[in-house]
Amino acid sequence: MDSFTRDGLVFDVRDGGPADGDPVVLLHGFPQDAAAFTAVADQLHATGLRTLAPDQRGYSPGARPPGRAAYRLRELTDDVLALLDAAELGSAHVVGHDWGGIVGWALAAWHPERVRSLTALSVPHPAAMAKAFVTSDQALRSSYLALFQVPVLPERLLLAVGGEPLRRLLATSGLPADVADHYVRRMQEPEALSAALAWYRALPLDARNPVGRVRVPTLHVWSTRDAALGRTATEQTQAFVDAPYRLEVLEGVPHFIPEVAPDRVAELITEHVRAHG
Question: Catalytic one among 33, 55, 98, 226?
Answer without folding.
Answer: 98
